[in-house]
Amino acid sequence: MELNKRKLALGDRNIVGARVTQARTEQGILQKDLLARMQVAGVDISLPALSLLEGQKRPVSDIELKALSEILNVDVRWLLGQI
Question: How many CB atoms lie within 10 A of CB 38?
Fold first, then answer.
């Protein structure tokens, strides 16, 4: 299945969105599947909110950051661009 490409420039509301997108697409995970996994993990987020997060157009909470790190199996520091 082909993944959609981002049409708009990234925002400046968070620093993890581009890395979330990178990890998700490298693993072949669709946004809707990531959304479902986050909801199973107890993080209540909508598809538009996830899209805004990935587009760096909304802040990311610490709870969301932790869940994203665990679900995508990446270090939080990597998501933050520290490693």
Answer: 20
